[in-house]
Amino acid sequence: MAEAAQESDNKLSGVQRAAILMLAIGEKDAADIMKHMGPKEVQELGLAMATLTSVTSDQMEDVMAEFVATLGKQTAIGVDSDDYIRKVLTDALGADKAGGVIDRILLGRNSKGLEQLKWLDARGVAELIRLEHPQIIAIVLSFLDADHAADVLAQFAPQVRADVMMRIATLEGIQPTALQELDEILEAQFSGNANVKSSSLGGVKSAANILNFVDGSIEGDIMEKIGEADADLLQQIQDNMFVFENLIDVDDRGIQTLLREISSEQLLLALRGADEALKEKIFKNMSKRAAEMLRDDLEAAAPARLSDVEAAQKEILAVARRLSDAGEISLGGSGGDEFV
User: Fold this and answer.
1) Which carries the bigger pLDDT value, residue 4 or residue 26?
2) Cα dihedral across residues 140, 131, 167, 247: positive or negative
């Protein structure tokens, strides 16, 4: 029984464990904690709390014990608050999700105006920054969540969109002087402290994430203009917009269409670097016999060079992008028309 309970605990995500903690500490304390969270984190945590069912006493005790143990390792004297925030959030949300949240928290504590922007609708944010220099707009959009930033970007003229996206993609952190300039230009709404370290906001990945949420027609126009100005940068953004693991977000019919367009040799090599969830998605959309043969081939295959695996994955992604452009499949992470 204990082993079963432990196995169940291990299946809980970081957000689910945080939700259990919120439910355990009571309404007032939970509310006080959530006041310090951004809108996306509140939404994600609130959804987890609303959908939790059948929480066992063993799970509750395990989560509380882990929290107390983590807290017990910290001291009020000499603790590095930045390191503490990074550790707690990484443990709660996982490294991938925590990265952006950490940057926004550590930067946002000295930029209250930026933090407030996250609660405004896209039109309101656009109106506040419309007349600012494109570099300032790029910094603001880098700070926002990707889907929010995409909605704000759609409010601008086509030429401005491309300019801003190129600036985001080539942004190598935000220096104190840039923050100070931002605070001064936006006056009291952007009160901050210039004595902060550079944040890792911006970059090619940030630009790609925003473009993943942009409407298809707007995305195409932006990409065309970026390509005219800097073909290398365009390629870097495209490479980051939809990676091989994102194929798990493609619906079953789309996967079946893709499989008809690629060779078994390509697929065998590409799947060598895929996680189990994606492999199962592929197997599910093949005939039983074909799936069994592919499983056997994967198990018996000799080691392959990482560069060869990545090349095969890029070839398959190129096919997926072609099919998407032709309207034959929908890439789950990319913006575009909805089907009803």
Assistant:
1) 26
2) positive
Q: What is the pLDDT of residues 254-266, one digit of tens each?
A: 999 999 999 888 8
CA distance 260 to 45: 40
Q: Is the pTM of this model over 0.90?
A: no
Query: CA separation (Å) from 206 to 36, 130, 167, 243?
Result: 24, 20, 11, 14
Query: What CATH number does the domain located at 242-325 have?
Result: 1.10.220.30
Ordered by start, the domain boundaries in the chain are 1-73, 112-240, 242-325
The answer as to CATH 1.10.220 being correct for domain 1-73 is yes
Cα-to-chain-centroid distance, residue 303:
31
Task: Tell me, yes or no, if the two domains 1-73 and 112-240 fold the same way.
Answer: yes
Q: Could you give the angle at the alpha carbon of 53 between the alpha carbons of 35 and 58, nearest 5°?
A: 90
Cα 11 from Cα 26, distance rounded (Å): 24
For the structural domain made of 112-240, what CATH number should be given? 1.10.220.30
DSSP state for residue 188 in the 8-state scheme? G
Task: Give the Cα separation of 196 and 179 in Å (integer).
Answer: 9
Tell me the chain's radius of gyration from C-alpha atoms.
Answer: 23
Q: Cβ neighbours of residue 289 under 8 Å, at least 6 residues apart?
A: none
